[in-house]
Structure formats: structure tokens, C-alpha cells
Design goal:
alpha/beta; seven-stranded mixed sheet; 30% helix; globular; binds S-adenosyl-L-homocysteine
Length: 413
């Protein structure tokens, strides 16, 4: 199931025949104004790509030309991780959906343009089963009740489904019968996990997971590798575009097979595992312990022996590597939305990689970090936006930076 992609905005002809006009009306989703999840639901997809392209071009113009954005051919229902909060209306009816941006008001996401439909159907079935199993909805004000959230993740390439029921309490009466009822309605479900979150917190997941059906994780594959994904591990929500993203990033590194590569902010090791066969060795660093465990098991399952993954803060780890006098040839960095740290980038400078491939889901933080890297010996060579989040205003950007040689610097004098 490999998506076909087009590179760059669609033609005017295609735009005219598209179903949603750019007239400011939210034709694609009735609740988009309240939910805030897809700000571009009323904008035709070709136009969305143009908007993103010009935003990134303008934002990063001081670093060079931005190449055409890499978009999707089928941009709807790409979100393979669907999370709904459960609550009650004022009349006491159970509802589920997303929080209205910045509030604790639940907006039922009726015909969501973003969410995978099979994941949504599983959540609807859970809703329907609640009454017969007498499962009470958690009430934030009184702190009573059981079910808080449901998260469903689909392995888009494997077809496996993980269901996480976030509960306020360990005690789930009738859970075996509930599992039977849900899995007979949805035999595609391969695992169900209870996540216990008794705290009055805005964090969705608590610390304790109890697997009540299947292995407690799902598998999926990307770029010819297989990955196990646990409930708390980060995994891109748009797997089809993730292949485009990784191929773009890995292509820019132009690996020859002799390099020491660092995969910083590596999650479950997806990038490192995809580049391992093209490098001498790969070193991964990741903060989340569950993701690190997944990454180590993923190396074993893919029989990759030249990728080592460490748990810790990426900046501290890189600094310790530099202090130990180590060197790297290529660094992939894929930090969270708020970008990297000076400690990390100072250490990159000391590790001396010839190439740095920066994957960013926060373009403003990327700009700040590129300024810092250019204040050292790195120069931006390529900027390529990749549309990982159609119908939203978010844009992922891949940048390749190269270290200036002494000749480069002489030429500039
Ligand atoms: N490269 C991975 C994950 C990218 S998301 C992929 O493509 O799937 C960013 C990752 O950075 C998350 O897994 C998050 O847990 C991790 N992270 C956040 N802060 C970190 C830090 N200070 N040091 C190391 N990893 C961090």
C-alpha cells in the first residue's frame, strides 16, 4: 500500500475540479470552527500546499530557496492514531471527540477529515458497548467514574490495531466479556491495553499499562523494515507520508556505507533502522524509555547489528560523546516541535559531522536553530517541506546542512 505522491502544488485545472472551494466556508467538516483540528478544512488541497509552500519559503528565505512541497495524492483520513476523550453533555448523554482548542469542552468529531475511519468505528463501538457493560464515564469535576479516553492506533501497512482504554482506576469489572464483545465486533483488533491514569492532569496517558488482550503493542512497517510500537512510544501519525519524509531525509544524507551516523531524537528507531544498511554504524539517542525499549527490540527483529540506541537527553548525550573525543559523519536530528537546544548544537559542532539532516515539525523553532547552526560552520544547502498533516496548518520541513571546509571559508573572504 504505497501512496502515490505528487511533488508540488496541483495545477489550476485540478484545483477547479476539486470538491471544496477556498471560500472560507468549512465545507469539509461541520465542527472545524470549534474543534480547531483542521484549520484548512475549507481549503482545496492544492491551495493548502501552496499556502504551506509560501509560508516556509518566506520564513526560511534567508537560508536559501525552498524546494516544492511533497504532498499527498489522497490527503483525507491519514491519521492512523485516533484519540477521543469521553464525557457527558449537560443532559447526561455520553459523547466522545476532541477537546476544543484551549478548553476542556468536548467537540464530537462527527465526520472527521483527518482521522482513519476504521479507528473511528472501533471508538464508536466502544461507545455503544458502554451501557451494556455498565462502564461509567469519568467526571473531571467530581473525580468519579472509570473511562477517560480511548486511543486507537492502526498499523497502516500491517493492518494491526492497538486499542488503549485510559481508565481512572485499575478495577474494570467485566473486562473479559468486554474484550470478547469488542473483538467479535472488530476482529481486526490485535491488542487491547488498559492505561491507568487516576491523576487530575491534562496528560492523556498515565504511567501504568496492563495488557488485557494480545501482545500489548502492534507492528507496522516502513521503508522495508518492521517496527513494534508500544502505547506510549512516538510513531508518526501519517505513515504513508512518513516514507516520503524518511526517503527525502535519507536521500539528502548521500550515505556511502562508511559513515558513523547519529539518529538523534530517534523514537522507536525508525530512521536509524532505515539507514543502518547504508552506514558503517548508527547511534540512536532518545529520552522516552518505552520508545528506547521498542527501538532495541526493533534492531533484533530486523537483524540489524550496527545500530545502538541509548536512553537520555540528546543534548547531554552528544556533549558526552564530544567530551570523549568521538566524531560523527552524519547527524539526523528530529526534535519535538519546540526544536533542539544550544547544548545539542554546540556538541554537533564539536562532533564535526560533514552533514546534518534536520527534520522539523516546528518551522519557527527550526528557523531559530538554523540561525544558530549558521553562526557556526554549518550552511543550509537544501530545504524541502513535506506535508505530513493535510487540512491542518502544520508543515514538516527537512533541511540539509553541510559543514564548511577551510576552502569554502577562504573562498568567501
Ligand atoms: N525520529 C522519530 C521520533 C521523532 S519525535 C520518528 O520519526 O518517529 C521526537 C522524539 O524526541 C520523541 O520520540 C521524543 O520522545 C524525543 N525527545 C523529546 N525530548 C528529547 C530529549 N531532550 N532528548 C532525546 N529525545 C527527546
Amino acid at each position: 500500500m504505497k501512496p502515490s505522491i505528487h511533488r508540488g502544488p496541483r495545477s489550476v485545472q485540478e484545483e477547479k475540479s476539486a470538491k471544496s472551494p477556498d471560500n472560507g466556508q468549512a465545507v469539509g467538516c461541520r465542527v472545524s470552527g470549534k474543534c480547531g483540528g483542521c484549520r484548512y478544512s475549507a481549503v482545496e488541497y492544492g491551495k493548502q500546499l501552496e499556502k504551506k509552500q509560501s509560508y516556509i519559503r518566506e520564513l526560511l528565505k534567508d537560508f536559501g530557496e525552498t524546494e516544492p512541497i511533497r504532498g499527498m495524492e489522497q490527503p483525507e483520513h491519514y491519521r492512523c492514531k485516533v484519540h477521543h476523550v469521553f464525557g457527558r453533555t449537560k443532559k447526561g448523554e455520553v459523547l466522545h471527540g476532541s477537546y476544543q482548542a484551549g478548553t476542556h469542552r468536548i467537540i464530537p468529531s462527527e465526520d472527521c477529515l483527518l482521522e482513519d475511519q476504521q479507528c473511528r468505528e472501533i471508538i464508536s463501538s466502544i461507545h455503544k458497548l458502554l451501557r451494556s457493560f455498565k462502564i461509567r464515564i469519568y467526571d473531571e469535576d467530581s473525580g468519579t467514574g472509570l473511562l477517560r479516553h480511548v486511543m486507537v492506533r492502526k498499523g497502516c501497512f500491517s493492518g494491526e490495531f492497538l486499542v488503549v482504554l485510559v481508565l481512572a482506576d485499575q478495577v474494570f469489572p467485566g473486562k473479559n466479556n468486554f474484550v470478547k464483545a469488542l473483538t467479535s465486533l472488530h476482529p481486526e483488533i490485535t491488542t487491547i491495553v488498559l492505561n491507568i491514569n487516576p491523576k487530575d492532569t491534562s496528560m492523556v496517558l498515565g504511567k501504568v499499562n496492563k495488557t488485557i488482550y494480545g501482545p500489548g503493542f502492534i507492528r507496522d512497517s516502513l521503508c522495508g523494515r518492521t517496527f513494534r510500537i508500544s502505547p506510549a512510544s512516538f510513531y508518526q501519525v501519517n505513515p504513508a507520508q512518513t516514507e516520503v519524509l524518511y526517503e527525502t531525509a535519507i536521500g539528502l544524507a548521500e550515505l556511502k556505507g562508511t559513515e558513523t551516523v547519529i539518529d538523534a531524537y530517534c523514537g522507536i528507531g525508525t530512521i536509524g533502522l532505515c539507514v543502518a544498511s547504508r552506514a558503517e554504524k548508527v547511534i540512536g539517542i532518545e529520552l522516552n524509555a518505552d520508545a528506547v525499549k521498542d527501538a532495541i527490540l526493533n534492531c533484533k527483529e530486523n537483524q540489524v547489528n550496527n545500530y545502538r540506541v541509548y536512553q537520555g537527553d540528546a543534548g547531554e548525550f552528544m556533549e558526552a560523546m564530544a567530551d570523549a573525543g568521538e566524531k560523527a559523519d552524519v547527524v539526523f536530528m528530529d526534535p519535538p516541535r519546540n526544536g533542539s537546544t544550544q547544548q545539542f548544537m554546540d556538541a554537533v559542532d564539536r562532533l564535526h559531522p560533514g552533514k546534518l539532516v534536520y527534520i522539523s515539525c516546528g518551522p519557527e523553532a527550526l528557523k531559530r536553530d538554523l540561525e544558530y547552526l549558521e553562526s557556526m560552520d554549518y550552511r543550509v544547502k537544501t530545504i524541502i517541506p513535506v506535508d505530513m498533516f493535510p487540512y491542518t496548518e502544520h508543515t514538516e520541513v527537512v533541511c540539509c546542512l553541510e559543514r564548511q571546509t577551510i576552502e569554502d571559508r577562504r573562498r568567501q573572504l
